[in-house]
Amino acid sequence: MMPSLRRHRFPPVVAASFFVRDVIFEETRVVPSHLPAVGDGRQQASSVAASGVLVILGASGDLTKRLLMPALYNLACDGLLPEEFAVVGMARGDMNTEAFRRQQRQEIAKFNTRQTFDADRWAWLESRLHFTAGEFDDAAAYGRLRKLVERVGGGTAAADNTLLYLAISPDFFTVVNQQLAAAGFTRLPGQKRIIVEKPFGKDLASAHDLNQSLLALWNEDEIYRIDHYLGKETVQNLLAFRLANDMFAPLWNAAHIDHIQITATETVGVETRGEYYDKTGVVRDMLQNHLLQMLAYICMEPPESLDPNVVRDAKARVLQAVRLFGPGDVARDCVRGQYGPGVKADGTPAVGYREEPHVDPQSNTPTFAAIKLHLDNERWAGMPVYLRSGKSLWKRGTEIVVQFKTAGEPNLLIFHIQPFQAVEIRMQAKRPGPAFQFQRAGMRFDYAETFEASRGTGYEVLLYGALNGDPTLFSRTDFVEASWRIMQPVLDTWAGTPAADFPNYPAGTWGPRSATSLLERDGRGWHECLSRDVLARSEFFAAAPAVLLNTLMLAFRPLAVEAGATIVEHGERKWDLYVVCRGELEAVGPAGNRLGVVKAGECFGEMALLLNQPRSATVRAVSPCDLLVLDADDFGRIIADFPQAEADLRRIATSRR
Ligand code: BG6
Asked: Does the beta carbon of 528 lie inside 6 Å of ligand 1?
């Protein structure tokens, strides 16, 4: 049966009458027009994109080979590119079409994301690649480009749909734009769109100027500002989740939600991008764009339709509701960090940020930030949103944690964005057995278990949307400027006051301690989402069965301590188990004699419980330490449920002693 359109009234909610809205959408599923329809785990036939010519300015660069070409190839393999389609590249140098094709053929072998390479589909795409060399400020080059675009599109529907993709450094945006306009690209017949990569400006003023210079030549609906996070399925799913699961709607407000955490941590440092990053820093690189995009999807009013501008109105409006930091607020609600030398996740040494190539050895640039925001609207009044992002941290993971209000153990709704992709509800369940006891449990929708769809680059949906003239996933002037407006006071305050304590976190750790304090002050803590590979870094868990790992992932809580802190005290009857993620501790006997050291990957505290005795030693942090704690109750339960775990623990403990 075909899904029917009906008028759907969302239920009124207890706390806030502004929830009530009328929406027209399909009864059985809501599928934004630009997204391939997916159902029952099977990819369903989607329509082929509109005919068009994609012009890539800067086509010999990294973006083209790593992301754009693999994305186009994926679209071609899925039958989503039209017959009347061509790519026209332009870049400096002396390449011609033949050399460009050869170059891309070599690169796609490295960068394609599919399990098997379909040579026929590549040949189909390769035959549609064209190239003209030219300097970005050379008017004659744009004349040649225009002729080539007209020639490849000539006589077909592709001529009526031109995408101009600026895959170039932002330093060239203005000159390229002006040259494109001078060469008549703004007056091309049919649809034309200009696609602009991030970074979109370096602050509010420059973003505004860039908007003005674009708007002088193009209409707003011709400007497609890219944020690659919107290409991620799990980010797009935030909107689907909000729209298609009514059961959460009545809870989606400050009356029921205690707070929201949006975290994007990376294990990599700045790698080869020191020059760019040192001028940029984490606020411009991640918070102003990717994290605020996710905040917008999570916190916006549900749009009344999937019309691109209705969705984008709602997104802009929620950013405009974020309270702007006043004087003094940044010092209170924002913390910054910069990594020093440390150890990578694989145990190898990591250099500090100031020693990275092309970074100022005195640099004040933050590589970590944690920020507390408030939204001054009816839905979210009084509820904080915490943002956190950083480089060279202990694990890679982007997660949004929605913590619900409760007197007891809070329910969490977790959007695992990447690398693990899932939506999870943390709840309490009855523990199997004759006694009526609760245990933390997770209810998960795991992408890998639910969908067969092949993994893409994230750019497929963006290019597909752009070809079809669907701007839903692209940012509008109001959104971009609202996002800079939120971050501007942070940028200004931090630029004006050099951080006396930089570097303030060793590479490979959880970040600066001040990030922990930011939440502790509010009686809260960061939720560190653990994964099996993080646990497997410890000898104890390396061979643990899946059920035990799942239990541990839910039971461990993070604890960050300073050097000198005492974790367990000789003689006390407390039986928590500790796993060391980073740092070093010493075990000290009653007479103050050093009994040994405990290092990253090891655990301590297990003997007291196993032998049912008081603590036999004091354990102190020698350096700042990141620990995972298994509370005594959970530890006792796990020992009872997993006899093998107890045996392993005894073996490890005995061999250590
Ligand atoms: C980019 C930033 O926009 O996003 C990088 O410039 C960052 O510094 C990257 O590493 C993160 O993207 P992803 O998709 O790996 O989360």
From this structure: no
